[in-house]
Amino acid sequence: MKIIIVDDDYLVVNSLKTIVQSNKIEVLAVGYDGFEAISLFKKHRPDLILMDIRMEGLNGIEATKKILKIDSKAKILLITTFQDDEYISSALNLGCKGYILKQNIKGIIPAINAVHSGNLVFDSKIVSTIQQNPSENKNIDIDLSQREFDILLLIADGLNNKEIANKLFLSEGTVRNYISTMLNKLCLRDRTQLAIHFYKNKFGIDSK
Q: Quick count: other Cβ atoms within 10 Å of Cβ 76?
């Protein structure tokens, strides 16, 4: 896998680069603002962009918007120190593939791998907050059983079928069956759309 790292903090860029390279992921280039992110994307066409949200000049949200106009299939994983619903909403509306908190060092590589594999990934702390406030989710699980909703939460957290099965003490086949049922109930195509459905309902994001 080949990626680009963009953050306006030199030390953060170097730290992320060290973490990524130690996991045998090639860093094609690094940048320090949204303008550089766009330029580097055009030049290198990486498999993934790991980019900060809050940057001087052009921020990560605006850079994401412009990059996705160049290539709607670009995979962008946003990183930030801010656990803010507004950023999550913006990221999803734009088509960003993930959002992870900088302090979650251990989660960065799994998040990169998950986004590269085509999954939608959001930091577990965000999902944990949602799980602790189930009353806010009434519009999400109206058509789902409790078990289906449990699986939906874990899909939104970026877990694969095997991980979900282990966490809920189910077989992988049972998890697949639940997912198929949810897709049919909600008229969705795949697990990525399930995750997007979850976040759209949670944060009131407009469908496109």
A: 26
Read off the pLDDT of residues 20-53 as tens digits, 9 standing for 90 and up: 999 999 999 999 999 999 999 999 999 999 999 9
For the domain bounded by 128-203, which CATH number is listed? 1.10.10.10
Strand order in the sheet with 2-6: 26-31, 2-6, 48-52, 76-80, 98-101, 121-122
In tens, the pLDDT along 102-129 reads 888 888 998 899 888 887 777 766 655 5
pLDDT digits (tens, 9 = 90+) for 63-98: 999 999 999 889 999 988 766 666 766 776 777 788
DSSP 79-108: EES---HHHHHHHHHHT--EEEETT-HHHH
Helix (H) or strand (E) holding 116: helix 105-116
Look up the pTM and report it. Answer: 0.67
What residue ranges of the chain are covered by domains with CATH 3.40.50.2300? 2-122
CATH number of 2-122: 3.40.50.2300
Burial category of 156 from C-beta neighbours within 10 Å (exposed 0-12, middle 13-18, buried 19 and up): buried
201 φ, ψ to 5°? Answer: -75, -40
Start-end of CATH 1.10.10.10 domains in the chain? 128-203
Q: 3-state class of 122 per DSSP?
A: strand
